[in-house]
Structure formats: structure tokens, C-alpha cells
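Justification of computing resources. Each target in the renewal requires a structure prediction run like the one illustrated here; the chain below, 369 residues long, is used simply to show the kind of job we budget for.
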Amino acid sequence: MPANFPSPKRRSLLALTVLPLLALTATACGYGSEADSAKENVAAKGKALSADTVKIGYFGNLTHGTALVGRQQGLFQKELKGTQAKYATFNAGPAEIEALNAGSIDIGWIGPSPAINGFTKSQGKSLRIIGGSASGGVKLVVNPKKIKSLKDVKGKRIATPQLGNTQDVAFLNWAAEQGWKVDANSGKGDVSVIRTDNKITPDAFKSGSVDGAWVPEPTASKLVAEGGKVLLDEADLWPGKKFVITNIIVSQKFLKEHPDVVEAVLRGSVKTNKWITANPDEAKAAANKQLEQDSGKALPAEILDPAWKSIAFTDDPLAATLDSEAAHAVKAGLLEKPDLSGIYDLKPLNKVLAAEGGTKVDDAGLGVK
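Resulting C-alpha cells:
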């Protein structure tokens, strides 16, 4: 069934009411910030696969560390051989889904909520989730002078990255579990939900425009550096402290036409996650170097170190938790009850995992038949 998110026009009107400083935000142009292939640190070598290029999207978040490290270390390009990897960075999931639908990217790292929304709005025709990437790395950080306990969150102004994004849904669900009433679309209620771009949330927090934020890393650690206190780690709300925060998606058209290229990217992802596990300090430095190349600014150690430590990188898409996150969006009134049958195609990933000596991952009954 189609998702019930507000129209782009209504989202724009809502954004205008959030914070005056939102007007100062510099967001990516068009479908994201495209990399200049001439500046890539690794060139395509060897015979091309079935496509000359593959366009890969990701966010400048540490929760997209697999993409950051795999790109920086040339691990994707190594698997792609003569097929050139081209990259685009995004600030939010809806823009990446739009790019995927338009053919501006072929494969992307993205959070569960926009993946669910993209799948349902296209009636199951636009994308497949083909792998996992990360779990954790999301926190509720607050001003300790205004909020000393969880119950003190009531009546305060809490930032989330975007209406209907993964953290927005998680916060709305948590607030509902406290017995608080919040209108999901307007963000008004017992708690005021202020949708704010992660790039300016630290400034909003510092100025007092918001009292806290439910955000991914490294934004959470940036708030701590500004005097914030971690009031809640979202991982503590999930069984085994595991929940999907980043998936890998692909357009169904590209998957059908270039399965060898998709498999090569997945092989690069699996090898990247293995390298991250074996070389945590080097991986952290590589992710930071890529962030610096993408944004022009590296993260200082006091932000990078705690942020990186809170993220677990995994090939498992943790499909059961995605189903739960969809249920949270339904409960919040942001999504009609969806049919997620076929949202996953994990056959290419399981093929790669078998070849690499890994363990088969499960689609929780939501895979293609």
C-alpha cells in the first residue's frame, strides 16, 4: 500500500516553520554532490563488467562507514575491475530515493525508513534491499541543564533529522511508548519535534533553539562536544541491542541488467566490513579521511572516537528489525500498513558470503520468491 507521508509541498511548508537558521543550510544540489571521477583515489583497472560505470550513493554519516571506508580504501573499485565506480553523497533519504528512481544512482547506502517508503510508494517496483551495513550509532542527546531524566523530555523541543526519516520514526515511537501525544506531521504535542538538518543541529542545540536531538553519529557526538549529555542510546531499546540503521539498496532495473556489477559491489562491502573489524583504528581514520574529502572538514578525535565506537558494522540486514521499524511508522501515522513482501533480495549477498566463508543471512520472510 502507498506510504502516507505528507506531500513535498506540505513538507516544504513545515520546514519553513522549523527554525530561522534553516534558511542558512547548504544542502546538496540536485541529486547529491557528485564526485569528480578524475579525482578518485583508485582508477578502474582491467576488463569492465557488464556495465562501464556504477553510480553509488551514500550519506556523510559514520553510520555509512562501510561506504566511506570501502571507497577510501579502493575496495569497491578493486572488485569492480574495469567498471568505474562513481559516487554521490546525500543529506537525506528521500533525495537518495529520488535519485535511484531517476537513474542518477544505481546502488545506495540508506536508512530503513526511506527504503521502506520508496518500496511502498512504487508498489514494490523501484528497489530491493540487498544487504546490511550498520547497526546502532543513534542517541538521544539533551541539554543537561534543561533535561535531567527521561520524563523531563516532555514539553521540550527535540530535533530529528527529517520528517519521516529513520530517527524521526524512532523518536515518535519512543514518545508514544511514554504515553505522550504528538501529531506526527506537524511535530506538535506533548513534545515538540523539530525537523532539522544534521548539519545545523549542533548550532541549533548550542543556540538553545532545541533542547535535545535524536540523531545518528557523528551528530550525536558533536552535541556531546557542545555540552550535551547522552540520555538514551537507541540500541538499548532493541533485543540484543541490534537494529538496522543502514541498508544497501539497488534499483530493480540495475539488478536485473547488471547482476555481476551488483555482486561485485556486495563483495566489496563484505570485504570492507571484514577489514573494518580487523583494523578498527585504520578503518576509523579512513572513514574520517573520506568525510574530509566529501565535506572539506575532518572530525576531531573527541567526536570521531566515541561516535565510531558506538556503531557495529554488519553484512546482516537485520530484516526482522526493519519490519518492526515499519510497524513503528504505521503506529505514528506516517505510513499505511505496508506489504513488504519482496523488499529483500539477499541471494547475491548470500552467494558472496558463502564464497568468503561467511554465514548466510535471513530476510525474515520478506524476500523475493
